[in-house]
TrEMBL record:
Ranges that cross the membrane: 20-42, 167-188, 223-244, 264-286
Domain of life (superkingdom): Bacteria
Lineage of producing organism: Bacteria, Pseudomonadati, Pseudomonadota, Alphaproteobacteria, Sneathiellales
InterPro entries cross-referenced by the UniProt entry: FtsX (IPR004513)
Protein's recorded name: Cell division protein
Keyword annotations: Cell cycle, Cell division, Membrane, Transmembrane, Transmembrane helix
GO BP terms in the entry: cell division
Length: 294
């Protein structure tokens, strides 16, 4: 089948009814591409968040004042270095903590005077079978002022939110697919009505229904394929702009969502998928309609 060939007998290219079908398909592809990009980028972001946070822990030491605070930090560091599975231990100084809080609380010299807890950054070795609950309990018994923060509750909430957004994006894609099929069915039926006389003549001279359906499916598949290209291009431009804007944000806690290779392949396949969906939809609707016309 020649997708880019012309329908010689029916002259479907002259139909005004399908003239705006590429514009509609382009709009649908634009929305579908954004939803698909959201699915893959959020999935990649969840994996990145899990890998970045699962191996990083923070020990919070409550403020006790004076030199006792520094002694507690040394005790925590010594305890963690003796713990199997701990790769690195780094105490965060008061100056570093003040600089981290400065964008939110104001001048760093004032923040240093506040009764801030001391923090110790801990990295767990990869694939290390460390029981974090047991580690937290043992640490708290040894040093009651210290509390281990695994970031897991926060990460679980972020994953639930990300999965909800993914579900919404999948629902949007399903809705777009249904609307696209309905639009194609309406355009194909309109074309059948407009060319009813020509179709009857073709039947009289021995043309088969499959031959007539082939002309319709070739024409509408070509319209869908060519119409999807501008929508896909515009969606990629929007995604690149959003990625550049996200990259300029000062997001030190988490990395911005990025598209993976599988996502780009899925985006590139969208025009082909839409063309095939249109082809089989038009073939089915034309053949079923021609049977009723006989």
């Amino acid at each position: 089948m020649n997708l880019f060939g012309k329908t010689s007998e029916l002259q479907l290219e002259k139909d005004a009814s399908s003239r705006y079908l590429p514009v509609v398909i382009s709009s649908m592809i634009f929305l579908a591409a954004l939803a698909l990009a959201g699915l893959f980028s959020i999935s990649a972001a969840v994996e990145n968040w899990s890998s970045e946070i699962s191996g990083n822990l923070t020990v919070e030491i409550q403020h006790v004042g004076g030199d006792a605070q520094d002694r507690k930090v040394e005790e925590v560091v010594s305890f963690l270095k003796r713990t199997p599975g701990v790769e690195t231990v780094r105490p965060i100084s008061v100056e570093e903590a003040a600089s981290l809080l400065e964008p939110f609380l104001g001048r760093a010299d004032i923040i240093r005077e506040l009764p801030l807890p001391r923090l110790v950054e801990v990295t767990i070795s990869e694939n290390s079978p460390v029981d974090l609950n047991a580690m937290a309990t043992t640490l708290n018994k040894a040093i009651p002022e210290a509390r281990l923060n695994t970031h897991r509750p926060w990460l679980d909430k972020m994953i639930v939110l990300a999965r909800s957004v993914q579900f919404l994006a999948a629902a949007i894609m399903l809705l777009i697919s249904i609307v696209t099929v309905i639009i194609v069915i309406f355009a194909a039926r309109t074309g059948l009505v407009m060319h009813r006389d020509v179709i009857e003549v073709l039947h009289l001279i021995g043309a088969r229904d499959t031959y007539i359906a082939r002309q319709f499916q070739t024409y509408f598949a070509r319209l869908s394929f060519l119409g999807s290209l501008p929508g896909l291009a515009f969606a990629i431009i929007v995604m690149v702009l959003l990625s550049l804007l996200a990259g300029r944000l000062d997001a030190t806690l988490l990395s911005a969502p990025t598209m993976v290779l599988e996502g780009w392949i899925a985006l590139a396949m969208l025009p082909v998928i839409v063309a095939l969906l249109t082809l089989f939809t038009v073939r089915w609707i034309v053949l079923s309609s021609l049977k009723r016309m006989m």
